[in-house]
Amino acid sequence: MSQTPPPLPPSEKLPSALWEQQAKEGNKAPRREMREFPCPNCGADLRFNPGAEAMKCTHCDTEVAVPHVDDEAAHEENDLRDQIANGQELETVETPSLNCTTCGASVEFDADEHSRLCPFCDSSIVADVTLQRSIVPQGLLPFSVQEKEAHERMYGWLESRWFAPSGMTSEAAQEHFSGVYVPTWTYDANTRTAYTGKRGVRTGTGKNRRTVWTRVSGTVNGSFDDVLVSGSQSVSVEFKDALAPWPLHSLETYQTEFLAGFRAENHTMGLEEGYAESQIFMHAKIRDWIKSDIGGDRQVITSSDTSYSDETFKHILLPVWITHYTLERTRYRMSVNGQTGKVYGQRPFSKRKLFAGALSGFVLMAVFGWLISISSGPNIGPYIYTKPALEPPTNEGSWFNDDG
Q1: Which domain-ending residue is among 68, 98, 127?
Q2: Statement to judge: residues 211 and 198 lie in one domain
Q3: Which domain holds residue 2?
């Protein structure tokens, strides 16, 4: 049985002691540049332990609590218009990163890492690690789902898929999950929209049924809270919508201790670009509000003019477990919400099972139709002509004439 290694001399524990001292003093700037946290007992790496609010040593299992800072900072809303008008840059820090040429992701990597696979598209990255300026998030949702639980959630999702190829679960079991923090913008806004349109009301029945149109106008007010936009242009909508909802009430103030043992993607979509993206969602929602305000059976919007106020934003990180597995020479991606455990994946189909299912469905429909026809079909017997059977010849005559 292995024994816990003896503690290192005090001189070799200086980085950890320095980190703890900086945490107590609230010296955020140097701490935000830290990416390595040595164990105070053996000097090995500490990694954040999901769900435990602590970091755990990879060697001796020593746990060190994550220093708590002002959690209100994670929920603080920043004035969007002031930020844009003043042209002030958001706080940034240099991080060793790699850019994926396949999907465009920019992900933090250590310079001495040998396995350089993009966690988003699973492509090999051959570029060198370089220091890149990345935006410092104000808050994040820490991982609360362990990697083992992510696998269990994935197995349950895979086993519930109809027409999936056999052996899919065993193939996926061989893959390793990557824990990645995805950069995200959140936007708030109050809106006021003046509109004109037409309300259609159906009247009459049958051939006399028609729609009577009435010109209308009005104003609708709305409020948007935490509209999520991915800060990365390399990821699909799954991280925002398919893995939603995200419990943003559990946001923690950003600390690099939460990132220990995980990767973080850098923002590749700017603040204004993200806001323009959020307005696409807002416009669709406002149209729904207008149609509801118009009423009637049918609605037509002829014009609308929206003004925005109280526009604010936050920049945060969301936790996602990502894995890829190969099945029938096709690569599939699976994602798990690192907070709630919700699963989203690219669904594989078995051609054999699809064919067998379609054939079975066709046979069942044919049998069902036949049963209906014989049980409830009309009696057509009286309408079927049956040719009478020929009577056998008698002594009174012959089948043939005398000449035959």
Answers
A1: 68
A2: yes
A3: 1-68
User: 99 and 19, same structural domain?
Assistant: no
Decide which of 320, 341, 362 is a domain's last residue. 341
Same domain, 284 and 330: yes
Residue 221 pLDDT: 97
For 53, the token pair is 């609010």
For residue 200, tell me if it sits in a domain: yes
Task: Please give the model's pTM, rounded to 2 decimal places.
Answer: 0.76
At 45-97, the pLDDT tens digits run 899 999 888 999 988 989 998 887 777 889 999 999 999 888 777 888 888 88
Buried b (16+ CB within 10 A) or exposed e, 16-50: beebeebbeeeebeebbebeebbbbbbbebbbbbb
Same domain for 135 and 187, yes or no, is yes
Number of structural domains, the chain?
Answer: 2
